[in-house]
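Hello K.,

You asked for the raw outputs rather than the summary table, so here they are, unedited. I folded two proteins back to back in the same session to keep the settings identical. This is the first:
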Amino acid sequence: MNRGRIATVGLAGLLAVAGLCLLPTIAQAAPRRDRALETQLMDHIRVLASDDFEGREPGTDGEAKTLRYLGRQWFDIGLVSGTNDPGHEWFAPVTLVARQPAASSAQFSRKGRRQYVPNDAVLMLTSGRRSLVREAPVLFVGKAQGSLPSRNDLAGRVALLLDAGNETSQRQNALLDAGASAVLTILDGNRSIEGVAARRKRSGYALASDDLGGDLEGFITRYGMERLLQGSGRTVASLEADAERPDFVAQPLDLNATLEATTTETTIRTHNLIGKLPGRRPEAGAVLFVAHWDHFGVCAESPAEDLVCNGAIDNASGVAVLTEVARRLARGPQPQFDRDIYFLATTAEELGLLGAHAFAENPPLPIKQIVAAFNIDSVAIAPAGTPLAILGRGMTPLDARIAQVARQQRRKLVDDPASNAAINGYVRRQDGWALLQHDIPAVMVTSAYGDLKRLEAYFEGDYHRPSDDLKHPIELGGAAEDVAFQVALARYFADARRVPLRP
């Protein structure tokens, strides 16, 4: 991934538009197969997923082109700026920090005597600029299953953890949250230091306003751990056997550790795009529609033939749907709705839902005023006639009203508990999850999740790869139907008589 091109987007040049064009006359509700709408969606995708936009990476020329295109579209449609900030009309600044691992060191001692371990047997990592612990006692915690050691037991100590596969990261975080000064994981042999380093050498991203705290976590090979245990009467195998005992409790080891990790930092200046259709009664609250505009930019290296992650489905298709929903809602004299309707194109979703978090942390209106938020992501998956799914079902008070709109629109909702549970397994992977963390009722209502086999085939194939482009056909039948349903959701939830303001 090429992160070397960091550019500040010039706001003054992003929206160089001179006037409002006449809006085309478009039917209020899309029929089952609206070929004209599918063509409009494809026109947007063809522009946004072109190589000229360089994969829409935040902080690059690709961002400037993306926001200029979307800003002009939204202005011509008839939206107004939704930032509610005269100093930053349309484009709300978001400052990111990219952190990449730099230096790592680990030293161990027993009773004041240095214990040798090869440098390539240990890797230390931190989420901050620099983290250091000196001469901290090592506490063996097994796999940290069930109840953790007390904060008094963990404070000032390095927790030595057995590799737990996919659960390792979660258990490392739990031990750090419980008070450990650092966590050192013994790799199980299926993973190597080289593999961990390759995975973690990629930049980690955060909002510049976030205080990451400098957590310190590390990995040590079985061979490296065996070297540290020499002369202690213990082996890795004996530690594993102890951890399997039902009466296992954390055990102090006769080891002290001095551990350090540093990172390098790069600042990226990027933007959310926020438009609005003003309502008749702004005090009655607002409805929010969201789609992320960003993707991974130049994501491969020569000699690969295709270097750009164009993100045609993820998420040029989502912002195309967002734009066409806005076009249909803006048709006719304004204001026509009780509530304001906001349209948010977020940055840095692919880097950790950061644009959505930035919106929620510095919103253009009080959070409690948002009665419902609807995310739109990777919709060019399912054919026309596919049932709708609610990603986030059961997590907000919106479900019953969405079902009522579905009945009115004669749209089928996925209603099988097992299917809905599987669908909700993806809820943390999209901007709606970030909004939920800030008490905004957010769901994704989409045909894309109405056929999980098709969706999972995409995830296992073109997802987050250069092949997510227009070199092969993409399906827009379900996306066109989703436009019509999002319009119906907007009309329903923007009616203050039908949907009361949140308490």
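The second followed immediately with the same parameters:
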Amino acid sequence: MKLAVVGATGLVGSEILEVLAEHNFAFDELLLVASERSAGKKISYKGEDYTVIGLADAVAAKPDIAIFSAGGSTSLEWAPKFAEVGTIVIDNSSAWRMDPSKKLIVPEINGKSLRIDDRIIANPNCSTIQMVLALAPLREKYGIKRIVVSTYQSVTGTGKAAVDQMMAERAGEKAEMVYPYKIDLNVLPHIDVFQENGYTKEEMKMIKETKKIFDDQTIQVTATTVRIPVMGGHSESVNVEFKKDFDLDEVRDLLSKAPGVVVQDDPSKNIYPMPLNAHKKDEVFVGRIRRDESQPNTLNMWVVADNLRKGAATNAVQIASYLVEHSMV
């Protein structure tokens, strides 16, 4: 097993290495890959130093699996080059997600759709992953008509420069402006670029990706995505209208038994999910579970996950593990 991590010097790349170590992902050779300007840098993994190599050298090495976290333009250019030499690419960018010829995978939901000839596999958007994982067991039981979601997303979703901006602002220092406005002590209803319909690209990702992952174009989805000055994870207020009525105790039971989901729902003891507690954890946390009393068959819940973990690195590593376990590599 020859494994490559492309974008190893970035926030998600670093998280991928942490998750690989924690999950004891087995490989014989590890290639840490980044842009040419980062080639030659040293990165430590499990106490051993690895030298970062460039993309061309990585393709020449013909890894079995390459986990990409290097941005959409890099993925569009280089993922096919890796695929041509027999590598299975697991891509964290948005480059391939809506390509009808590529699978968009959350292993717990649709891992079974993977086939041995899938050479480029897309990792969904972080905010989509945590929502669909929480909804999947409920959809199976009750069916879904409509989802209304508002997100409260960590600055880590933008990258290291955004974290640096927030922390500099917090320290009263001059910051490089990644966002169009100050982020500390502020809230920005603006993630990614605005589209002609008035939605942002992030909002449209959640709408389109949810339908693709569930393989159901009839589900109606509307989203508002918001950046808030926190680290540790994304939070979401999810309002879901089911096709059938539900029992709240059964909902909690279904969620508590769902793989990768943890129910934290005891308002009497102030127990509910928060980014502070989700940080560095692989699970998706669900709480504030309650009936929407304004219309039938409708549920409210609060969903939190570390966006660098299940929203990116963990999901990618789980895809790689699925491929190994099912002898697709």
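The chain is about 35% helix and 25% strand.

Happy to rerun anything if the numbers look odd on your end.

Regards,
P.
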